[in-house]
Amino acid sequence: DAGVTQSPTHLIKTRGQHVTLRCSPISGHKSVSWYQQVLGQGPQFIFQYYEKEERGRGNFPDRFSARQFPNYSSELNVNALLLGDSALYLCASSLAASSSIRGEQYFGPGTRLTVT
Amino acid sequence: AQKVTQAQTEISVVEKEDVTLDCVYETRDTTYYLFWYKQPPSGELVFLIRRNSFDEQNEISGRYSWNFQKSTSSFNFTITASQVVDSAVYFCALSEAYYGQNFVFGPGTRLSVLP
User: Fold this and answer.
1) Which helix (H) or strand (E) holds B101?
2) Contact B35, B95 (CB under 8 A)
3) Contact at 8 Å (CB) between B111 and B86?
4) Is the CB of residue A105 less than 8 Å away from at least one CB of chain B?
5) Nearest 5 degrees, angle CA B69-CA B7-CA B26?
6) pLDDT greater than 90 at residue B3
7) DSSP β-bridge partners for residue A13
8) pLDDT for B56 beyond 90
9) Residue B6: band (very low, low, confident or very high) from pLDDT cuts 50, 70, 90
10) Do B95 and A103 touch (CB under 8 A)?
């Protein structure tokens, strides 16, 4: 079975631009979460969606938004890019909405975003 | 607030040595879940283990073992007879159980296994 897929792999944008990152979860998984991983640090939670509804939001500005589609794929949008948005953006999928039941998350390879 | 500390930033060992990666967590929840992930140079996080707060039994999987001690809020990871392929960054993560999956990750420990 295919794992979590993300596109694009790499992206270079200029400050002030907008970016859309895409994620397809493992087949059968209804939960998708997004994380930002700055070089040398652990991933930071951005959003979780389950059954197309937002289940959680991390401490990120309103420039960050996301949505989940009927096929459970997801998009992460970032507006007005700043240099500090340069990071690896990871998508994770899970069978369950919470960690209590089969709650392990499976991560995709990430999208490396560079803002110049 | 939830917090995960991995005090060891980098560890280097020679192949076949045993190595223990430390993880200390903070949470006010009585029910929570702990995880370990491996991030090889390719960048993709690989799931290793999930443990709930009610199960303090140690677990062994091949060369990997985990020691969960609620009394000290620690969830340490030991690799026995390390191999070069174990070289990676290892992350410990904490998640509350009841609603979402907001994983709180530690800063990671970079393990280098030298031949």
Assistant:
1) none
2) yes
3) yes
4) yes
5) 50
6) yes
7) A115
8) no
9) very high
10) yes
CA dist B42 and B63 (Å) reads 22
The Cα A112–Cα A98 span in angstroms is: 27
Nearest Cβ partner for A43 among B52, B99, B105: B105
Out of B50, B100, B105, whose CB is closest to A98? B100
Q: Evaluate the CA torsion angle A26, A30, A34, A35 in order and state its sign.
A: negative
Cα B85 to Cα B82: distance, rounded to the nearest angstrom: 8
Q: What is the mean pLDDT of residues B62-88?
A: 95
pLDDT at B58: 84
Taken in order B16, B18, B19, B25, is the CA torsion positive or negative?
A: positive
Residue with tokens 């980098």: B10
Residues in chain B, total: 115
The amino acid at residue A51 is E
Q: Is the pLDDT of residue A32 over 70?
A: yes
Q: Are strands B74-79 and B88-96 parallel, antiparallel or unpaired?
A: unpaired
